[in-house]
Design a protein that fits this description.
- It is a single chain.
- The protein has 297 residues and is of the alpha+beta class.
- It folds into two domains: 6-157, no CATH class; 186-296, no CATH class.
- It is built from eight helices and 15 strands.
- The chain has helices at 38-41, 73-83, 102-119, 137-153, 228-237, 259-267, 273-276, 286-296; strands spanning 6-10, 19-23, 28-34, 51-59, 62-70, 87-95, 123-124, 186-190, 195-202, 205-208, 213-215, 241-244, 247-250, 254-256, 278-279.
- A seven-stranded mixed β-sheet has the order 1-2-3-6-4-5-7.
- 31% of the residues are buried.
């Protein structure tokens, strides 16, 4: 996807208040609102448009989401306001010209539910997987383009429900992502454990490669404030990490947000990622490699 511009308008003048998001050349329009600002949000004209909405919150201390559609989003969300207590934020997705119709938003809803289940970043309250409506080939192509742009914008709004860290869409089946030119392979080694993991940088992702090893169990702290153990357990649950002897092995290339997150999962405890990962075949740490690159600028 080529470079683009995202325009955010903070309606309340506050980062946690209502905001709208639009991309130049894209017909979509996004309104994000905390539940505390719901009355004001539902007075806005776009709230009465045909579209898709996402409710985000927590239940039993676990993140939860619900994806729905409606010909008048405001009416649907008013119903959820009365019946669902757990959600704290709503994301309303429409078109700026209100030219989406019922079949369009049913297609959006079905596709987004499927993407959320595949990403498995949080539980969905949706009881069923909605089926795809009948659309012409041209209409389907238009909706797929709409969804592609939408999935680029939502993470920028801190909506990570659909972000898929498993890097499986590769040119060749079961291939491993190849590092960009001039970007080395990084390696984490635990000699006593017999563990070696390799990773590459790809854009903003630090990707641990398929076949890398990790500790067989997470031995670090499991406090409420800690979070790396949750990521380790999630990868085991998703079978991205599976047993291989006394260790775990990565069955897919997997993108982490930082070297420390990747190191903690491989090491089974909190790890200083910038110094734990080293350029393969050298003693140079990631931190030293990064400093060297910065000095060249």
């Amino acid at each position: 996807m080529s470079a683009t511009t995202l325009e955010l308008f903070f309606i309340d003048g506050q980062p946690e208040g209502m905001l709208t998001a639009e991309v130049f050349g894209w017909t979509g329009h996004i309104l994000v609102t905390p539940r505390t600002r719901l009355p004001a949000a539902l007075k806005r004209k776009e709230s009465g448009y045909t579209g898709v909405y996402i409710l985000l919150g927590e239940q039993d201390e676990q993140p939860l989401a619900y994806i729905g559609e409606g010909e008048n989003i405001a009416n649907r969300i008013k119903s959820h306001d009365a019946q669902k207590d757990w959600w704290t934020k709503a994301v309303l997705i429409t078109s700026a010209a209100n030219n989406l119709h019922k079949a369009h938003v049913q297609y959006l809803e079905s596709s987004l539910v499927k993407q959320a289940i595949k990403a498995a970043n949080m539980a969905l309250e949706n009881g069923t997987k909605p089926s795809l409506p009948s659309l012409s080939e041209a209409a389907q192509a238009n909706m797929e383009a709409f969804i592609k742009q939408l999935l680029m914008v939502l993470p920028a709004l801190r909506v990570d429900l659909f972000r898929n860290n498993v890097k499986a869409n590769l040119p060749q089946e079961n291939a491993v992502l190849q590092p960009e030119k001039e970007i080395p392979i990084f390696e984490l080694t635990l000699k006593k454990e017999g563990i070696t993991a390799t990773a590459i940088l790809n854009g903003s992702d630090f990707i641990v490669q398929k076949g890398s090893l990790a500790k067989g169990t997470y031995t670090g702290g499991r406090s409420v404030k800690a979070h790396y153990w949750k990521q380790y357990d999630k990868l085991v649950e998703q079978r991205i990490l599976i047993d291989q002897g006394k260790h775990k092995v990565f069955t897919q290339d997997y993108a982490f947000s930082s070297t420390s997150a990747a190191g903690a999962v491989c090491n089974g405890r909190s790890t200083a990622g910038p110094t734990a990962w080293k350029v393969q075949g050298t003693g140079q740490t990631y931190k030293e490699w990064e400093a060297e690159r910065l000095a060249e600028n």
